[in-house]
Please model this.
Amino acid sequence: MTWGPYYFFYICSKCGKRYRWILDDMSEADFSNCPECHIPGELVGETRDIGKEENKYAQNSFADFEYI
Model:
C-alpha cells in the first residue's frame, strides 16, 4: 500500500518563493534549492504538517507551494 508522494515545503529567504520538493528527488544535487535563486530554502514543513494547526504554515495548502 502506498500513501502517495511525500513533500518537503520550503520558503526562499532571498526572494520569498514558496516551493516544494518531493522526497523521491532527495538525491538530486540541488534538492531544497530555490528554483529562482538557486540557494537552499528554509524548510517550513512536510506533507504531514500541512493543514495542522500547530504548524505556523497550517493555513497553506499544497497549491500555495510551487512543485519543483
